[in-house]
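--- STAGE predict ---
source: upstream dedup step, 1 unique chain passed
mode: sequence only
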Amino acid sequence: MIVLGLSQVSPHDPSAALLVDGRVAACIEQERLSRRKHAIGERATSAAAACLEVAGLRIQDVDLVVIPHSFENIRRLRFAGFRRGLGRRGRKGWQLLIKNDRRGRRALRAARESITQLGGDPDRLPFVSVEHHLAHAASSFFFSGMKSAALLTVDGEGELTTTLFGEADLSRGVHPLHEITRPDSLGLFYSSMTEYLGFQNLDGEYKVMGMAPFGDPGRCDLGDIVRWGDGDFRIDLDYVHAPRALRYQGKMFSRKLVERFGPPREGDGLAEPYIHVAAATQRVLEEVTIHLLETHLADVLRRNGGRLCFAGGCALNVVLNRKLIQHPLVSELFVQPAAGDSGLSLGAAASAAHARGEAIEPMLHPYYGPEYTSERVARVLAGSGLPFAPVRDPAERAARLLHAGHVVAWFQGRMEWGPRALGNRSILGNPSVRGTADRINEQIKFREVWRPFCPSILEEHARDVLEAEHESPFMTFSFHVRPAWRERVPEIVHVDGTARPQFVSRETNPLFHRLIESFRELSGCPLVINTSLNRRGEPMVCSPEDAVAMFQGSGLTHMLLGDALVVKPGHEADLGA
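--- STAGE serialize ---
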């Protein structure tokens, strides 16, 4: 059976995913094609077309279209949301009681129009809806390789649900146990604080996570803004996720928050009290999530040996994930690379396929996007005006450039799925050369200089460098760097002594593995700096055209684009090295 997941209900991160007989054939985020970060307000039609092209299929070959939005969720939870919001600031309770499903109807209409644009007949193609948070849960569990697991999803909101607890096994599928509804949302709390700290919500939450270690959470009390206990939490709408009448200049946070902590942060630097606010925000997310886990999932975790699948936007918080891994109830944690809303298309497709008897293959790698031929790369380079030359062994050449201290753009194979560069659309650097991270931040990425960089490390050497007893193939976890290595690889160590690694396997990405192995043979270091091939505010590059444009508009001087070495004028001598 061929199942197309089409996620374009949320106002951000539309995507498409294609399952063929339970195997992932393609997954693509719309932003990579439209070149607009998060593709806000866009449909996933181009992403769906690209998935079909990657798989060599037509829309007429598709058996089922699935959208991650359910009419039933709002009908089922409307009164729970009413009771939860009643008496709160504004009209939250009444809004939830009278809420209809206009968004769901628009989503179904948009999906039908997308199918028409793809050349299909929406009247002859079945459409299925899957609840937002059940799609999140499915996106994690069915690709984890686990036979059974506890389920946790935490994000801003999906229909009326903001947090879901459940369990799953391969026979029954995903089974919800408990839900928390609007207006209480850890995701919207974190996004509100993200805006207050001067970042863009939906895009800057990971920057708050990176800022938090510079502050002291004890110097900022948020205990009255988020209250928790007895397996529940409530947020004070006077401060965050505020009604429109209370908001500060149209932001998610209120004027009252500004009166309490001062004007919102501006600029790219680190300053008080903002670093302490960031630290307190991160601590609230961690403590509330762990409290909820202990209340609602302890029995499930004990029954299944501690296996947990986590999804939703908050599952991209790698510091929280480290705390979950360290929890005595948890023995194994799976977070797929596109854990946020872009992963909904994959989860919806998997949920519907499993319900129809399909066995879903586990996710062993994240490389589900487009791949480009050598002929196309050659045409693009020929028209670029850039100096370039073919190379026999791109991995070995990149390793030598890194060892010499160069920063290298690396464009190979199929594009990654999810927001993190995992070795096919990457900027690479030498983690032992001090100043490399600053150079990438200032001259190439044009981003805040205090932001940390991640390492890609040979799987077989990961535990020598990191205090890690858990796998990390997708950069969804962080670990402490062993003291003996902190001075050897200072450019990937954050201020709290941690790093967010990708363990690189010879089986799943042999070319990237060989690059790092070649670098290790030259330097004695089994890891490289790896950050996404893009500039600040842009999506990760997808095509050779994107890569050349990004290369020309940044301080990069060397790029391995397929089997060609590309350099900036003045570096032609390196073409023959």
